[in-house]
Structures are given as structure tokens and as C-alpha cells.
Amino acid sequence: MTENSVVQNAGGPDTATPSEVQNVRRAAWAGLIGTALEQYDFVIYGTASAIIFNTIFFPNVDPAIGILAAFGAYAVGFGARPLGGLFFSKYGDRLGRKWVLVATLFLMGIATFAIGLLPTYEQAGLWAPALLVACRFLQGFGAGAEQAGGVVLIAETAPKGQRGKYASLVFVGAAAGTALGAVVWILVQMMPKEALESYGWRLVFFSSIFVTIAAYVIRRKLKESPVFQELKEEGAIGKRDTPVADVVKNGRKNLFRVFFMNVGANAHSYLFQVFLGSYLISQLKIDATFIPKVLLVGALFACVSAYVFGNLSDRFGRRSMYLVVTTFLFIFPIPAFLLINTGNLFLISLVIVLGFIFAAQGSVGVQAAYFPELFGARYRYAGVALGREFSSVFGGGVAPLICSALVTAFSGSWIPVAIYMMAIMGISLFTTIKSPETVDRDLLLEEDAK
Description:
The protein is mainly α.
């Protein structure tokens, strides 16, 4: 172990050299911009599912079934995420974190741009939704390694005492991507309805090319994490099983911890970001133009909350802050729906903003440093990627679909939705209670946190 690596991983914030500080900041910006693209891709698709895709790609069915079909295609992207995590984990723990971040960036950007080129159902029949699902799959395949790569690289680069602060910037990027997606939809919805349904929605997906280019410009100058470099120099990389087999064999306990701690938070995140839009339109007859506006407000608050919760986890501990988040989200669903169903736009906005603050970004602001610290050095990337992305299938991937089905099956009642939200968050809360504190753990250790 070299002297520099000891300083980097055992020292405090005052031990970092100017070049190390610059590299941490560059890594933070690379993670922020890349995750902004990922979230932008998912949010513009999710918003389109709520307000327009049911008529463009699934026009010959009942509106409620059309929404279910659109969310079903949306769920495909989440189904692809663990597959992407499996594929890229091998390379993230063998070739490095930077290599994966560049590869996934282009995969997501191209897939999103391609959605804007798709024919509608009227033009191509069943080929239209089939191609939509294919593009959605590629989006999810790339996203399955994107956030894990960002948080692992930053956590391994940042000095002790500041991991939570810097790693949380990945999810500040996620909130920024949500805000950007909302702004674009607000602008596009100013178009006449005919123009929106003809080509306006395509402009939203074409716009992703600008975010892709910006992310690449930053990432091409990115350095590999010092922890990965140290392991490579010591010859620890490639000595054992593949990273995926290694983490399944030796890191199963923390793999399950990450899965269950994330599944509830991830479900709540996408319910507030995606499902509530369709619920407000279909059940409360709220004007569709209200949805991107309130998502924008929520995302702006979330940019701050991710950073705040990351900082607080440095000060008070990862487990303590994650307990705060999961406890709030466990008790919030019933009050949330009582406020929403007043129809008062201010109260609806308050609920969505609180959902963004705690579920969308508060939870992941803590996860950013917590999850990498749970794993040993040799399969950290694989552990974070697989735990988060498999849980995202059972969390955010199916949550909007399940809740839309519950609303349809129970004649518009919100009570089954609230029960579902509390049940899945209860899993995350219980797992957090049983999990260890990891703040400022030495990331060069090959042993997992106990």
C-alpha cells in the first residue's frame, strides 16, 4: 500500500493535495453530469408515459389500459438495469470505473435519441410499441451500471470526512436531470396539441444529445479512482473469481442489505416522480400542464436535499440518516394521499416536493457513500451495481405499474396504493435497523463491513 493511498483513504480533508482535490471535483462533476443524463432520459420517458405515449403508441385501447401499457414499457427499462449491472460489473472491477462510465454514457444517449426517431402506432402498427420497448431496454441496460460507477469512483476518490458530501453530488445530478426534463416538457407543452403529438414530443428526446456531449467532454479527462489503481498495482485485480461470482459467493449478506434497503426507497422515488402524474390526471382531472411544473419545483428542492443528506451522513453517520429517511417515508403515504385528494394545488405540490426531498434524492444522497462502504475493495462495483439495480426492478421498475393496476382494480381508491407504499418501505426500514454503521470506513480493505 503506497503512502499516497494511505493519505487518501485514512486521512482527513486537510490531507488532500491540490491535484487530489482537483481529481475529486472532476470525478464529482463526471458523476453529476452522467447521472443527470440518466435521470433526464428516465424522467422524459416517464412524463411522456403519463401524458402522451398511451395515445401515440397504444391508441386502440381503453385509456386506463393505455396508461398501464405505457408504464409496462417503462418497467422494461428497469428490468434491463440488473442485466446491464451484471454485464458492466465485470469490466468495472476489472478494467476500471472510468471505462464503464464512458461506455454507458453513449449507450443511454443513443437509445434516448432513437426514441425520438420511432414511428407511431398509426405509422407502423405493432412495430411502434415493439421498437419503443427495445429502446427502453437499451436505456435501462446502460443505466444499470451508470450510478454505481459514479458513486464508487467518487467514494474511492474523496478523502475521509467528505465522502458523503462528494458522492451525493451524483444524485444532485439526478435531481438536475429531473429538473431539466421538466423544463423541456413545460416548453414543449406550449405547442398546439396537434404539433405536440406530431413532432413536439420527438424534440424532447432529441434534446438528450446535448447532455450526452456535455457529459463526454467532462468524462474523457477523468482519472481512475486511487483505490482501483492501488489494487491494480498490487496485482489484486483478477486473482480471484470474476467480481460478480466473488460478490455472490463472499459478499451475499451486504448484497441483500443493499437490495432491501434500496427497494422501498426506489419504489417511492418513482411513484412520486412518475405515478402521481398519471394519478392526478386520470383520477383528479388535474391539468396535464401542471405535472412538469410541479416536477420542476420538486427537483429543485431535491438538488439541495441530496447534498444536505450526504453532508449529514458524514457528520451523524450513514445508518442514522438513512433511518430518518426510511422512517419518514414509512409514515408518509396516508397523509400524502389525504392531502393530494383535496385537489388543492398547493397541497399537491407540497406532497410531491416532500416526496422528492426524502424519497427521490434524500435516500440516495445517503446511499451514495453508504453502499460503497458496505463492500470490500475487490468487488465493490459489482456489489453496489447488482444490489441497487436488481432492487430497482422490484422497486421503481414495477411500482408505477402496480399502483396504476391497484387504482384501476379498486375503482380509483388510493388506500391500496398507500398500503403498498408502507409495506415496501417497511422492508427498507427494517433492513436499515439491522445494518451496520460504515462512516469513514477504509475502502482499501478487502473485507466487507460486518
